[in-house]
């Protein structure tokens, strides 16, 4: 395999790994390189990223795990963006939230199987909004995180218990295309504004 092709694949691997990041062991295994070669490619990729004229992220090494991270010098802008979006949930986030509420405790992999797409970003957003939280680990290889809803979720949707969630059959009949969570979340947000 060509040198630049390996760097290109490595960059894609870093992107796909998201918050979990990559270890040298994983890189060497996937690319079928020695650990020494994997380290050299990683060092070269870091150098290439650092030399870019315009960049919005960098490669960081946290305890032997490499991952992409936004530049800390731009923190105030990212914070502003998060604050502006604080009270809104996209349809994808609402869909993810509904899957967790109806299936908890549930792993990220199971959520993705139901949705049919990756949901790392949605889960991070929902955790940041304190609507979901880690409630344990599944006793399977890799011990994936199990997610469940929080008290804040219950408050946002004016629920005392999860038994108050409508039956999925009821939602389909009563709301057809309308998203029950979207409706409830909007109502809840309107009520808080009135107060």
Keywords, separated by commas or semicolons:
two-stranded antiparallel ribbon, 3-stranded antiparallel sheet, 195 residues, Arc Repressor Mutant, subunit A, alpha+beta, 56% helix, 5 strands, disordered C terminus, 2 domains, 13% strand, globular
> Which stretches of 5+ consecutive residues score pLDDT under 50?
170-178, 183-195
Query: Percent of residues in beta strands?
Result: 5-15%
Give the tally of structural domains: 2
Helix content class: 55-70%
Count of beta strands: 5
Number of helices: 10
| Shape field | globular
**Class of secondary structure makeup:** alpha+beta
Provide the gyration radius in Å. 21 Å
CATH topology of the largest domain: Arc Repressor Mutant, subunit A
Can you write the helix and strand succession as a string? HHHEEHHEHHEEHHH
Kindly report how far apart the N and C termini lie.
63 Å
- Do you know the CATH architecture of the largest domain? Orthogonal Bundle
CATH evolutionary superfamily of the largest domain:
Winged helix-like DNA-binding domain superfamily/Winged helix DNA-binding domain
Give, in spatial order, the strands making up the sheet with the most strands: 3-5-4
Q: Biggest β-sheet, characterized?
A: 3 strands, antiparallel
CATH top level assignment of the largest domain: Mainly Alpha
Provide the residue-averaged pLDDT.
81
């Amino acid at each position: 395999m060509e040198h630049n092709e390996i760097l290109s694949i490595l960059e894609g691997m870093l992107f796909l790994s998201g918050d979990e990041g990559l270890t040298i062991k994983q890189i060497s295994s996937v690319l079928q390189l020695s650990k020494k070669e994997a380290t050299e490619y990683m060092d070269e990729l870091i150098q290439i990223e650092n030399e870019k004229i315009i960049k919005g992220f960098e490669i960081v090494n946290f305890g032997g795990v490499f991952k992409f991270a936004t530049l800390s010098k731009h923190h105030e802008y990212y914070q502003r963006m998060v604050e502006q979006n604080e009270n809104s949930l996209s349809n994808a986030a609402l869909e993810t939230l509904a899957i967790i509420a109806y299936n908890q405790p549930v792993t990220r992999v199971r959520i993705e199987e139901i949705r049919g797409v990756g949901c790392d970003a949605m889960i991070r957003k929902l955790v940041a909004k304190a609507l979901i939280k880690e409630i344990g680990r599944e006793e399977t290889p890799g011990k994936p995180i199990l997610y469940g809803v929080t008290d804040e979720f219950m408050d946002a949707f004016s629920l005392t218990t999860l038994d108050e969630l409508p039956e999925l059959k009821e939602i389909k009949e009563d709301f057809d295309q309308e998203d029950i969570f979207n409706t409830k979340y909007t109502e809840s947000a309107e009520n808080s504004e009135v107060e």
